[in-house]
Specification:
The complex is a heterodimer.
Chain A (H helix, E strand, L loop, with lengths): L9 E10 L2 E11 L4 E6 L5 H9 L6 E6 L2 E3 L4 H7 L1 E4 L11 H5 L14 H14 L17 H14 L4 E5 L7 H16 L3 E5 L3 H7 L2 E6 L2 E7 L5 H10 L1 H7 L1
Parallel strand pairs in A: 3-8, 3-9, 6-7, 7-8
Antiparallel strand pairs in A: 1-2, 1-4, 4-5, 9-10
Chain B lengths: L6 H6 L6 H13 L6 H17 L6 H26 L7 H14 L11 H26 L3 H20 L4 E3 L3 H8 L4 H28 L7 H24 L5 H19 L1 H11 L1 H6 L4 H27 L1 E3 L7 H11 L12 H7 L2 H10 L3 H29 L2
Antiparallel strand pairs in B: 1-2
Helix pairs in contact in B: 3-17, 4-10, 4-11, 4-14, 4-15, 4-16, 5-6, 5-7, 5-14, 6-7, 6-14, 8-14, 9-10, 11-12, 12-14, 15-16, 17-18
The chains are: A alpha/beta, B mainly alpha.
Chain lengths: ~260, ~400
């Protein structure tokens, strides 16, 4: 790979994480650059979820380094990750069904005055603008309860929440897992738009056709270590499947 | 649609909704399980008609202001319970914690003792002690993860034991302090009552119209101006009607004002502040709240603190009403009445749904107790009726929750 002047937005070097006897991550290297969609693929138990949770500050790493814009950083809680502009859209979405779209978008970061009184009008305005900028048009009212939204709409809200905060890095954990054909379409378009807006996007997915549709590069994890990083243009689905199941050598043999 | 509004108003309001649209949206929400206060209001009307037909003392000005005094203590305790229910927990200790509040306020005004404080100081201390008890229970629940059911059940027993210990030898403490007695027994002069009604209506109008116009300035959907004005007129009219009825007998009881103040204050806290928003979030999805960076433990502790403080204030009101405190305080049906009031008022036991004002509506279920006493029916009727209504309210909540889940898909 040719050297690029700007360091990656987010970079992991030799990150390990164990839970007792289980070594979930064994020295993982990973990077994602601004404006690209990096796919993170791997079989069940490959360490994808652990990796995300380490970056989100839910788990702390045992050893290794996390670099942000080339600078080493320590992430010891969700607030640290949020401060760096790293946002994770979880598989189970982490939305509150009993709150409306605006309330969910600003959850934990509400716009308030000195007396902690909520400023609803600006929050509602920014929600509407953000949804519009992502061309999310299917949500009838931003004051609808999230409980009344469809799966695709909920996913859109979760993604829009990540965008609202001018984040630098957005992780999407299986964003299309529970969606129908049309809704998957919506969300994939949304993922592409995030990359075009200059964010560093990490797409975690089992679905290789989704990955090949939106990703620029693909990182393959296997049994807690990374097998390799593949340019989408220089590989194919079979090679990735090989890498996921058998590791690097097998992938190189076929690819 | 809104032909009554001047043309420039309807033209300027881009987000103005027609009355028909609002009615349709409400009906859809209603069918979807968001029934709001409708069942409890229907219930209150039914109860009123029933007892008015049974006895001619029920629907009188004297009984009305009496009813305010009877429901005040329970309603204030129920306001605290609402916060605990909103985060999906339960507080079984509020009955006897309010008893601690009663004993404390009586003890701190006892003349001739070393702690003979002025009434307001005694009230502050009583509420403060109960808030600390709530905070302690909340901390055990939040930090150690012990289920709230067990922690507050233990709290119930400990508080009951403390009441017996504190009242020990005498078994009763009389209250002489006028400030404390006034809490439940002072009656506002008729003119003061009218001034209160005017101020309340004015604040309501400023609040509602302020929201309407600030949203319109921001170019956001505003709801309907007619409906906003109509709401102010309705609640303002209701306030004036209440004051008129009270003035027909002795006047507006101060305790009624205390209840309204507590309900408005905590409604504001729950509905308009970041704290309130976080309470609903924790009740709706605690994991989502945690990931959003909300301090879930702190919210839990604060909700139990509010529950304790409200129980304390309720205890002060109950003690003030009887001018003395004895061993029966905090016991009886007080705990269940308070929880029933919150649940009947539409607060979900599953967390995250309901309003503080529900406690006020639910408190009106005290009408049943009041009515059966007036009619002179046996006690068993009171319990069976209240039990049936509570069961109906919880069933409605469960069904509503299921409907809300299904209409979401």
């Amino acid at each position: 790979m040719s050297a690029t002047p700007a360091p990656p937005t987010l970079e992991l070097r030799g990150v390990t994480k164990s839970f007792g006897q289980v070594h979930a991550l064994r020295g993982v290297d990973f990077e994602v650059r601004a404006g690209e969609v990096m796919a993170l693929v791997g079989d069940n138990g490959a360490g994808k979820s652990t990796l995300i949770k380490c970056i989100a500050g839910i788990y702390s790493i045992d050893s290794g380094q996390i670099l942000f814009d080339g600078e080493p950083v320590s992430i010891s809680g969700p607030k640290d990750a949020a401060k760096l502009g790293i946002e994770v859209v979880y598989q189970d979405l982490a939305l509150c069904d009993n709150l409306d779209v605006v309330q969910n978008m600003f959850l934990g970061r509400e716009d308030h005055d000195a007396l902690y009184r909520l400023r609803e009008a600006p929050m509602e305005q920014r929600t509407t603008e953000t949804l519009a900028s992502l061309s999310v048009t299917t949500i009838r009212s931003v004051r609808q309860l999230v409980a009344t939204l469809s799966g695709g709409q909920r996913q859109s809200v979760a993604v829009a929440r990540a965008v609202l905060w001018n984040n630098n890095v957005v992780f999407l954990d299986e964003p299309t897992a529970a969606l129908g054909v049309a809704q998957t379409r919506q969300v994939l378009d949304l993922v592409k738009r995030l990359g075009e807006q200059g964010l560093a996007v990490v797409l975690v997915s089992h679905n290789l056709s989704d990955v090949f549709e939106v990703a620029d590069r693909i990182t393959v994890l296997r049994l807690g270590s990374n097998v390799g990083v593949y340019e989408k243009s220089a590989t194919n689905e079979q090679a990735i499947v090989q890498a996921i199941t058998f590791g690097e050598q097998a992938a190189e043999a076929t690819g | 649609m809104s032909s009554a509004a001047p043309p420039e108003v309807s033209a300027a309001a881009a987000g103005e909704l027609g009355l028909a649209d609002i009615a349709r949206a409400r009906w859809e929400a209603f069918k979807g399980g968001d029934v709001g206060s409708v069942p409890v209001i229907v219930g209150i009307i039914a109860i009123t008609i029933f007892f008015t037909a049974k006895t001619n003392i029920f629907f009188t000005a004297v009984n009305f202001s009496n009813l305010i005094g009877q429901m005040a203590g329970v309603t204030v305790i129920a306001v605290g319970i609402v916060f605990v229910l909103l985060i999906g927990e339960i507080d079984l200790s509020v009955g006897y914690v309010s008893g601690i509040g009663s004993v404390a306020v009586a003890e701190f005004q006892k003349s001739g003792s070393s702690h003979d404080y002025p009434g307001l100081v005694a009230i502050g201390l009583a509420v403060g002690i109960c808030a600390v008890i709530g905070a302690a229970q909340g901390s055990i629940i939040a930090f150690l993860g012990v289920p709230s059911f067990v922690v507050t059940l233990a709290g119930l027993l400990i508080a009951q034991g403390m009441i017996i210990y504190l009242l020990g030898n005498e078994g009763v403490i009389g209250i002489q302090d006028h400030q404390i007695i006034d809490v439940a027994n002072y009656v506002l002069s008729k003119n003061t009552g009218w001034i209160v009604a005017i101020v309340f209506t004015a604040l309501l109008a400023i609040g509602s119209l302020g929201t309407y116009f600030s949203r319109r300035r921001a170019g956001l959907p505003t709801g309907n101006l007619l409906l906003t004005v109509g709401r102010v007129v309705f609640y303002g009219g209701l306030t004036f009607a209440v004051v008129a009825i009270c003035n027909h007998s002795r006047g507006v009881p101060l305790v009624g004002l205390v209840v309204v103040f507590v309900v408005v204050l905590f409604s504001y806290l729950a509905g308009r502040t970041t704290f309130g928003r976080h309470v609903y979030a924790v009740g709706g999805n605690a994991e989502a709240a945690r990931r959003a960076g909300i301090n879930v433990k702190l919210i839990r502790i604060l909700c139990f603190t509010i529950s304790g403080a409200c129980a304390g204030l309720g205890g002060v009101i109950l003690a003030s009403r009887l001018n003395s405190v004895d061993l029966t305080f905090g016991g009886g049906t007080l705990l269940l009445d308070a929880i029933s009031a919150a649940v009947i008022g539409g607060v979900s036991l599953f967390g995250g749904r309901g309003r503080v004002s529900g406690a006020l509506f639910g408190g009106l279920i005290g009408m049943i107790s009041n009515g059966t006493d007036l009619v002179g029916s046996a006690d068993w009727i009171k319990y069976v009726t209240t039990g049936t209504i509570l069961l109906a309210a919880v069933t409605l909540d469960t069904v509503a929750r299921r409907r809300q889940a299904t209409t979401g898909r």
